[in-house]
Every structure is written in structure tokens, then in C-alpha cells.
Amino acid sequence: IECGMSKSYDFGKEAENFAVDYFKNLDYKILARNYFFQKAEIDLIVEKDNVILIIEVKARTTNRVNLPENSVTTKKKKLLISAANDFILKNGIDGEVRFDILALLKQKGEWETNHIINAFSAIEL
Q1: With contact defined as beta carbons under 8 Å apart, do 87 and 35 qualify?
Q2: From CA 102, how far away is CA 91, in angstroms rounded?
Q3: Model confidence pLDDT, tens digit, residues 115-124
């Protein structure tokens, strides 16, 4: 039975749900999911020990094309930074902010994770 949702949408949601569980299991507090600001969307915003992590979730079913973390462009980074600034201002957050990528690879029904800490910084752009 088709419900009109695409497989890629379902896969993306599954990956994001896995990412939420991944960070919860590491005792991170989930602050936001799918945070929108203008044209930007942050997949996940989590916090632990007064450090705010802006998480870009990149999921693939094959690693032959290119590594998931290589698909985050400079334009995407700038959008993430502007959305992060908006979230921080609106919520009065005072803490260290870090931009991480959670690269997920699903093969044979199992998720492999590659948590790239400090994937990029606002300063380098």
C-alpha cells in the first residue's frame, strides 16, 4: 500500500529518528528537530554540558558515491550557521556552539555511524 510518501522521505525520517536515539543514548538533551529559519533547516539541535551541537544528519545506503560528510557544501554551512544564530538568539542560549555531522550508512539493515565533531566552524567561512 502506497501512502504517497517517497522512499527517500521515509529513509530520511528513519535516519533522523536513529540520530535522535543515538544522541539520547549519549545523554544529550534534544532541543529541536527540523529547525527552520528562512531557507535553512537544522536536522537536530542537542545539548550536553552547556555545549550546543548543531547536527547535520547525512544518511546513505552506499558509500560508493562519496562520503556523506563531503556533501555538506559551503552554501549549506552558511545556511546552518544563520539558522543556528537565529535559534541561539530566540532561545537566549549562552554556551559553546559546535557544528557536527552525523554521517549514517545503512547496509544490511544495520546503521554505521560516523560522528564528525567540529565538522566546520562559523569562523572558517
Answers
A1: yes
A2: 24
A3: 999 988 877 6
